[in-house]
Amino acid sequence: MPLAQTASSVHAAVVVDRREPAPGIVVLGLRVPSLEESVRPGQFAMVAMPSGEQAAVALAIYEAGAQHLSLMIVVVGTRTAALANLAIGERIEMLAPLGNGFEAETLGDDVALVAGGVGIASLLLLAAAVVRRGARACLYYGARAAGALVESDRFARLGIEVSNATDDGSRGYRGFVTELFAAEGRRHSGIAGCGPTPMLRRLAEVASQRRIPAQLSLEEPFGCGVGACWGCVIPHAADENGAPQNLIGATRNLPSLAVGHRRTTQRKDERFTYVRVCREGPVFWSEELRW
């Protein structure tokens, strides 16, 4: 049964720890007593800049529990640099939890977790949820080079088998993580993935070929993070009434959705609509996406 989307609110957070698992990647630990129990795997936060002079940043919620929450930050500009350089004791505000996350219970008893780069940040809470219900999981984790494979030990400590791929062959399989996953050939009961769009598209193809259900967390730039600006829409399968089909979560009443048709070489005319990655996602069933 679909889960209702968790209500979000503004939370005050205090920086309590900070680590840098790789150059330019920072895991910021926060004390947020009012938030951690309501977070579901795959949800995110819109984090306000300390100065208040720039737009908030959307970040996946990496860890949550015991009044402690962490965010993985990749430094790519002034906003992320400002967050990554926060000192212990500094305070920030965040709107969270946001979005519809993964549904661990629908992925079966042998789950493939597939991460590309910092897509790993969206999968740790899911991995813990899978293990808690007694299911088996395997992490397929790829990056440009060995130095960019961060935090995989966190998954190993949960008892999850880890297989790596690097573009330059410096660790594990030489090539893309989707090539590693396709070569493995293991018949998993479900797939959960997060990473760059080309990786997710290929993962969706493999899932379709093997007839394995897959939930994918899309990496899209967000303007508002709450669905108001409609700046992160993607095409999604629609029913005969123009409503999105099989959304994860229970967000169904969508205003003013644009509906259309397109033709492909594989199928007859099909109906599609546009959904917001930040609101109806960021996690979707792969077979419903119409990239």
Residue fraction in strands: 35-45%
Order of helices and strands: EEEEEHEEHEHEEHEHEEEEE
Give the CA-based shape.
globular
Please provide the count of β strands.
16
Residue-averaged pLDDT: 90
The number of helical segments is 5
Helical amount among residues, as a percent range? Answer: 10-25%
Q: Major β-sheet, in short?
A: 7 strands, mixed
Low-confidence stretches: 1-5, 251-268
Structural class: alpha/beta
Rg of Cα set: 19 Å
Strands of the widest sheet, in order across it, are: 10-9-8-7-11-12-16
Structure description:
The protein is an alpha/beta fold and 291 residues long. Helices cover 15% and strands 35% of the residues. The strands form 3 sheets. The protein has a 7-stranded mixed β-sheet, with helices on both faces. A 6-stranded antiparallel β-barrel has the order 1-2-5-4-3-6. Strand 11 (190-195), helix 5 and strand 12 (214-218) form a beta-alpha-beta unit. Helix 4 packs parallel to helix 5 (197-210). The longest helix has 14 residues, at 197-210.
